[in-house]
Amino acid sequence: MTHLIVTLSYILILIVVIVYKSRSVKTEEDFVLAGRGVPVYLLVGTLVTTWIGSGSLFGTAGLSFQVGFSELWFSLGAWIGILVVYFIAARVRKISQYTLTDILEKRYAPMARLLGTITIIVAYLIIAGYQFKGGGRFIAILTEGSISVDQGTFITFLVVITITALAGMVSIVSIDIFNGIIMILAIFLAVPFAISGFGGWDNVVSTINEVSPNHLSLFEGHEPVWYIGIMLPTLILLLSESSVYQKFSSAKDAQSAKKAVMGMFIGVVVIEFLMCLLAVVGFAIYAHDPRFFLSDGSVNAPMSEEIILRIGFEQLPLFIGSLLFAGGAAIILSTGNTFLMVTSTNFSRDIIEKFFIKDASEKTKLIIQRVSIGFLGLIAFLIMTQFEEILEMAFISYTMIGAALAPPLLATFFWKRVTKEGGIASILTGMLSVVIIEVLNRTGVEMDLLLISFPFDSKLIAIPALIASIVALVGVSLLTKPSPEEVWKPFFDEE
């Protein structure tokens, strides 16, 4: 009951802050970019909590339970991506566009913007959907089954779309500094208490060595291609993360954006390492618990994704467990807000306002944005019902965004020779590669197609999709006429 009271109290505090802040939303720019006045400390908080969402709390934790410390290769991709983003953060803020698709249109063509918008909408709805699914599991554990997973999922859906529609980006950056503090504090305290509660680190190691020694290694238990495939989705996603670029534009100046990226790097590395460590400790704690394993001895993947919350509810002292649940609620709300916000921004600005309601007033634009949040949230909810594992949804959505958008986006800042035709071909090829592979996987038919054997491991989907996107980008660009200097020059100006 204490876990429930603490979590509900924290959510209530967040809602009060959001309602108060929503009073300042007067224009579309206020709603989408928080008025372009976000200081560094708030930007760091919102960047960290954007990345550490249900995908980390459930998917990454589940992967850590399944494979041990080699999960860190999955996280490593994001860490490398953040460092790359550091070198282009100031450029992005200097251009001062609203969305990533604005950048694609500015460098390539309106068609690139449209294809980018479609990619982002589809992939981000999958991500938003697994926030709902994560919230359902969260509420079911918190209420000890009094509220079912399905009921909890629907409750999460209603809460997230309501909060997002109320104040937009203002709601997100206003609460994320609190969410970040709670999250970091909870994970920092949970790890040592979980280890000591199980009898110390030596007991953790000896238990794992008896059951699965490879869980303690970064380099054993997998083929080399697995490490590449597991690292690529987070790397290419981070390099093309539309919500991150949108938040760069929320910074008060270019230098603030750059400082915030370094703060994000430190925060993400620390939190993801501790989450992995906590899940590995959880593997030792629950090594003989039948709930976490199937009859053949393999890991029960959906159950493994609950490991961090199970530790918080069943293993930790009441105060620490309650703090962990409050942090979990913060993660789910913040990430759900962010991905619905970015999706609705692209949908309303790049489709509705561009093709159907032109020259709309500021009031009308706000209405369109808020209605879009509800409409797209419902679609995300329906998509979510087609998947069982959050980790599977993460790999598909991460790769769709990364393979389609990372190559043309990076070429915008680092390759003057890229052409609009090459950019468009890259986006289309990256997106369709993921769709085709997933469709063929779901047919269950065993076949070989272009050196790929089906069914194909979804954890490795980034390899063929990224190769296809890069080949299209380079090949088509070299076969078409170079872009004029006035098109590429704004992206190469010295800071």
Secondary structure elements and pairings:
Layout: H1 2-22, H2 28-33, H3 40-51, H4 54-67, H5 72-86, H6 89-95, H7 100-107, H8 110-142, H9 149-167, H10 169-197, H11 201-211, H12 224-239, H13 242-248, H14 254-285, H15 301-304, H16 307-314, H17 318-356, H18 362-384, H19 390-414, H20 420-443, E1 447-449, E2 452-454, H21 462-479, H22 485-488
Antiparallel strand pairs: 1-2
Helix pairs in contact: 1-10, 1-17, 3-10, 3-13, 3-14, 3-17, 4-8, 4-14, 4-19, 5-12, 5-14, 6-14, 7-8, 8-9, 8-17, 8-18, 8-19, 8-20, 9-10, 9-17, 9-18, 10-14, 10-17, 11-14, 12-19, 16-17, 17-18, 19-20, 19-21, 20-21
Fraction in beta strands: under 5%
Identify the overall geometry: globular
Cα radius of gyration in angstroms: 22 Å
Provide the CATH superfamily: Sodium/glucose cotransporter
Tell me the strand order in the biggest sheet: 1-2
Q: Structural class per helix/strand content?
A: mainly alpha
**Sequence stretches where pLDDT stays below 50 over 5 or more residues:** 30-36
Largest sheet: 2 strands, antiparallel
**Annotated CATH topology:** Sodium/glucose cotransporter
Account of the protein in words:
- By secondary structure, the chain is mostly helical.
- The protein has a single domain, classed as Up-down Bundle (Sodium/glucose cotransporter).
- 76% of the residues lie in helices and 1% in strands.
- It contains 22 helices and 2 strands.
- The chain has a two-stranded antiparallel sheet with strand order 1-2.
- Helix 8 runs antiparallel to helix 19, helix 9 packs across helix 17 and helix 19 runs parallel beside helix 21.
